[in-house]
């Protein structure tokens, strides 16, 4: 009469099947291992494909980020001396247009 609960899986937590959410894939061997229950299995071709794509996308993103950083360093290196030169020349009046400023009128 009161045995209904015995078939109820999951109320004590131990019978809940692990959904292998946290698993690691070895892309060389195709072997997966669940961090939670320790179960290991071999990934299917589709899973391997997804994992490889994910890893190469990640590598691509990191590479792009790295390249962006190098470009901004490069542009800073190129633009900074130019900006300095421009400022130096401006200070000497190379870029000053005559008669624009009242200060230049000598009378
Ligand atoms: Zn698991």
Task: Describe what this molecule looks like in 3D.
By secondary structure, the chain is mainly alpha-helical. It has two domains: 1-43, no CATH class; 44-95. Helices cover 44% and strands 10% of the residues. It has one helix and three strands, in the order βββα. It has a three-stranded antiparallel β-sheet, with no helix packed on it. Zinc ion is lined by residues 18, 20, 34, 36-37, 39.
Mean pLDDT: 80
How many distinct beta strands?
Answer: 3
Order of helices and strands: EEEH
Hetero groups bound? zinc ion
Please render the helix and strand layout as text.
Elements: E1 23-26, E2 31-34, E3 40-42, H1 45-91
Antiparallel strand pairs: 1-2, 2-3
How would you summarize what this structure contains?
This protein has 107 residues and is mainly alpha-helical.
Task: Name a few traits of the molecule.
binds zinc ion, three-stranded antiparallel β-sheet, 2 domains, mainly alpha, 3 strands
């Amino acid at each position: 009469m009161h045995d209904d609960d015995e078939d109820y899986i999951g109320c004590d937590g131990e019978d809940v099947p692990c959904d292998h959410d946290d698993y690691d894939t070895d892309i060389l061997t195709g072997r997966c291992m669940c961090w939670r229950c320790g179960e290991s299995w071999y990934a299917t071709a589709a899973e391997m494909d997804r994992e490889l794509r994910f890893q190469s996308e990640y590598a691509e993103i990191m590479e792009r980020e790295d390249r962006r950083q190098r470009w901004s360093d490069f542009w800073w290196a190129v633009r900074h001396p130019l900006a300095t030169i421009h400022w130096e020349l401006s200070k000497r009046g190379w870029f000053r247009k005559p008669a624009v400023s009242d200060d230049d009128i000598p009378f």
